[in-house]
């Protein structure tokens, strides 16, 4: 079985760092502007297609690409930095938008994980753990605080949490666009490709 996951959040919150940490177990520091979908297996029976993209103002609103992304995904990883209050506020708005876009599901069933990243930078913290936890409670989402820089295990845990939610929601058969279809769409929109692979 496979499922699609999209990583979202504002600029420099660590979306690529989290993705690369999951895929390679490593933290490499700088990631560049990479738009890509990666496949990652969890055991023998489950593969996640993970779409990581650099933040762009164009995607911050309900553009058609944003909507395609939301429709394509079965699960969502919404990342903010614990040092960046604006990024936390943006996650809160994203949750509402995703839930209203995925209108064929009951809103509380949409598998969403809220991730407070950069936990290692506690001396610069501006968003309390409790705020993240409360947001998750009020919106029926999961919540994790992680440090992509320091820790692989917490990153792995957040994907396992999402996987469990997706299994519960049994969403994988309702996908409007197949994997190949979305890759084509991405190529057309961005007119650029990456060849790196992990
Ligand atoms: N201290 C610390 N720095 C981090 C952590 N995660 C990412 N960073 C740094 O934050 C910066 C942005 O990380 P990216 O992974 O590129 O962030 P992004 O959200 O993909 O950014 P965009 O592509 O601009 O949307 C880089 O300099 C990373 O090294 C973390 O857990 N702790």
From TrEMBL:
EC number in record: 3.6.5.2
Alphabetical keyword list: GTP-binding, Hydrolase, Nucleotide-binding
Swiss-Prot/TrEMBL catalytic activity: GTP + H2O = GDP + phosphate + H(+)
Any one Gene Ontology molecular-function term assigned to this protein's record: GTP binding
Domain of life: Eukaryota
Gene3D superfamilies the record matches: P-loop containing nucleotide triphosphate hydrolases
Class in the EC hierarchy, top level: hydrolase
Family per record: Belongs to the small GTPase superfamily. Ras family.
Protein name: small monomeric GTPase
Species annotation: Zoarces viviparus
Highest classification ranks of the organism: Eukaryota, Metazoa, Chordata, Craniata, Vertebrata
């Amino acid at each position: 079985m496979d499922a699609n996951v999209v990583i979202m959040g504002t600029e420099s919150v660590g979306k690529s760092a989290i993705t690369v940490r999951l895929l390679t177990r490593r933290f490499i520091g700088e990631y560049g502007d990479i738009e890509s979908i990666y496949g990652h297996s969890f055991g023998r029976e489950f593969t996640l297609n993970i779409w990581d993209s650099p933040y762009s103002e164009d995607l911050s609103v309900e553009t058609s690409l944003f909507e395609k992304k939301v429709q394509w995904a079965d699960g969502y990883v919404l990342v903010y930095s614990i040092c960046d209050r604006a990024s936390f506020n943006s996650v809160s708005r994203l949750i509402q938008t995703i839930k209203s876009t995925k209108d064929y599901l009951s809103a509380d069933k949409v598998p969403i994980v809220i991730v407070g990243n950069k936990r290692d930078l506690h001396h610069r913290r501006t968003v309390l753990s409790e705020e993240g936890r409360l947001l998750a409670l009020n919106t029926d989402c999961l919540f994790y605080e992680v440090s992509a820089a320091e820790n692989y295990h917490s990153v792995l845990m957040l994907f396992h949490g999402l996987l469990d939610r997706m299994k519960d929601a049994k969403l994988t058969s309702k996908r409007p666009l197949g994997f190949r279809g979305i890759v084509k769409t991405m190529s057309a929109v961005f007119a650029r490709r990456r060849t790196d692979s992990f």
